[in-house]
TrEMBL record:
Its EC number is 6.3.5.2. InterPro entries: Class_I_gatase-like, GATASE, GMP_synth_C, GMP_synth_GATase, GMP_synthase, GMPS_ATP_PPase_dom, NAD/GMP_synthase, Rossmann-like_a/b/a_fold. Catalyzes the synthesis of GMP from XMP. Keywords: ATP-binding, Glutamine amidotransferase, GMP biosynthesis, Ligase, Nucleotide-binding, Purine biosynthesis. It comes from Syntrophorhabdus aromaticivorans. The active site is at residues 84, 171, 173. This is GMP synthase [glutamine-hydrolyzing]. HAMAP family: GMP_synthase. CDD domains: GATase1_GMP_Synthase, GMP_synthase_C.
């Protein structure tokens, strides 16, 4: 069965957890899509959903500008689950009373079950749930009953009498809710009565078929960067159409040490892809000569890349499609701010390319979240080292060399950076780290080596944890690791006599130094 035939629609009222709800539902074997709360009834029903989830949100249902969904969803014969704001909205719309309580209920609460109901099957009395709300239900609407409460929430779980509409005051999607997964599972399998046909393996098979059907005998061009998204896109399309996928890998001279060789080894030698390697190091370095301003570096790198890519793709002849690693967070039309990757990607936006080159976009990952892309990569046989790669900016080491990008300075940074990669990125203990890298600062300081005075470069170490790159905190690395990295850099990287550790968070700092 095609997993698109069994869809859950999540209406997003702006909760920070909306994407988490989607991830959890998919992990439970059901495909789901996030739509803005303002989606039209037509838009919702055109997906033929088996169930609708109303997310939480930052507003109060009593606010003048409180978000409200199309009321037409309630009379449909489709089960509904309101979470937090979603529950309060349901109560209010059906004539109940919701008021701001004096005290915000935040954190753990214990659930007391009043009635045995399919939604709470397998949930014990006293099970902990995670609350985060200020409004609470004071009077239930007619036609609804309470099936569980907590100390602070007399109506923590509610259902409509006929058993189609449910609401939970807490957040079943966060891991602090002990049996949250079970509650979502009950909603999906016992109330929406789904079969559960979605898995990332089913995605790979379906996506392969879709690509084959769409592309036919035409040719697809793909800019391979060696990052997770473009690698998974290329491998998936290659699985579908083999040699009709033409990959272009441009060495812009500001890649990490050995990176070009690693990409060629994997994609050309091991996966036998039709891959054109363009060594454009000279061209990029010449264009970057004397440029200190990071924005100018970005523009030069972006423009030079497009020029080369366009020429190479033209030389391939009759290419019809351009493959791109667009992910679901870029696609979601959300009430909350746009997905983080949208912001990151605008840095190296090549958006105008397909139209200029008269190519049609092929975006086989548009349904997936980043974690899912990693699992698909594994499913496709890509090595762990690639799947768990940290994000690496398009303009590469050029924004990590503060000031002039010269061959000599690139060499210093590549050596220092590769030590950081060895000790941190490639160490499974540090998989939770978002990015770890070295920066070359345009400052020299005095040191002493043996009996000699040195006057050499400083390397800064930046190691941060983050969910999406929008905010970040510096990592409290164990001293032993800091010590090892620092010693290795000073001993092994040429012309470095000092290493410093960046202990600033974002905001107010940024992740890159530039
Ligand atoms: P900042 O420095 O703004 O970085 O805190 C946030 C995230 O974006 C990445 N980044 C870039 N990625 N092209 C990219 O593809 C760029 O020009 C660029 N600048 C920053 C950065 O590595 C971090 O993950």
């Amino acid at each position: 069965m095609d997993y698109h035939k069994e869809v859950i629609v999540i209406l997003d009222f702006g909760s920070q957890y909306t994407q988490l709800i989607a991830r959890k539902i998919r992990e439970l074997g059901v495909y789901c899509e996030i739509l803005p709360f303002s989606a039209t009834l037509n838009n919702i029903t055109s997906r033929n959903p088996k169930g609708i989830v109303l997310s939480g949100g930052p507003k109060s249902v009593n606010d003048a500008d409180a978000p409200v969904c199309d009321l037409g969803i309630f009379p449909l014969d489709i089960p509904i689950l309101g979470i937090c704001y979603g529950l309060q909205l349901t109560v209010k719309l059906f004539g109940g009373r919701v008021e701001k309580s004096a005290k915000r209920e935040y954190g753990m609460a214990r659930l007391v079950i009043e009635k045995k109901e399919p939604l709470l099957d397998g949930i014990q009395d006293g099970s902990t749930v995670w609350m985060s709300h200020q409004d609470k239900v004071l009077r239930m609407p007619d036609g609804f009953k309470t099936i569980a409460h907590s100390d602070n929430s007399p109506h923590a779980v509610i259902k409509s009498v006929e058993g189609r509409i449910y609401g939970v005051q807490f957040h079943p999607e966060v891991h602090h809710t002990q049996k949250g997964r079970k509650i979502l599972r009950n909603f999906l399998y016992k109330i929406c009565k789904v079969k559960g046909v979605f898995s990332l393996k089913s995605f790979v098979d379906a996506a392969t078929e879709r690509i084959k059907k769409k592309v036919g005998d035409n040719k697809v061009v793909c800019a391979l960067s060696g990052g997770v998204d473009s690698s998974v896109v290329a491998t998936l399309i290659h699985r579908a159409i083999g040699d009709n996928l033409r990959c272009i890998f441009v060495n812009n001279g500001v890649l990490r040490k050995n990176e070009a060789a690693e990409v060629l080894d994997l994609f050309k030698d091991r996966l036998h892809m039709n891959l054109k390697y363009v060594d454009a190091e000279e061209m990029f370095l010449a264009a970057l000569k004397g440029v200190k301003d990071p924005e100018r570096k970005r523009k030069i790198i972006g423009k030079t890349f497009i020029k080369i890519f366009e020429a190479e793709a033209k030389a391939m002849g009759d290419v019809r499609y351009l493959a791109q690693g667009t992910l679901y967070p870029d696609v979601i039309e959300s009430t909350s701010s746009k997905g983080p990757s949208a912001t990151i990607k605008s840095h190296h936006n090549v958006g105008g390319l397909p139209r200029r080159m008269k190519l049609t976009l092929l975006e086989p990952l548009r349904e997936l979240f980043k974690d899912e892309v990693r699992i698909v990569g594994k499913e496709l046989g890509l090595p762990d080292s690639l799947i768990h790669r940290q994000p690496f900016p398009g303009p590469g080491l050029a924004v990590r060399i503060i000031g002039d990008v010269t061959r000599e300075r690139l060499h210093i940074l590549k050596e220092a950076d590769s030590i950081v990669r060895d000790e941190i990125e490639r160490n499974d203990r540090f998989r939770h780290i978002w990015q770890s890298f070295a920066i070359l600062i345009p400052v020299k300081t005095v040191g002493v080596m043996g009996d000699e005075r040195t006057y050499a470069n400083v390397i800064a170490l930046r190691v941060v944890e983050s969910k999406d790159g929008m905010t970040a905190d510096w990592t409290r690395l164990p001293y032993a690791i800091l010590d090892k990295v620092s010693r290795r850099i000073i001993n092994e990287a040429p012309g470095v006599n000092r290493v410093v550790y960046d202990i600033s968070s974002k905001p107010p700092s940024t992740i890159e130094w530039e």
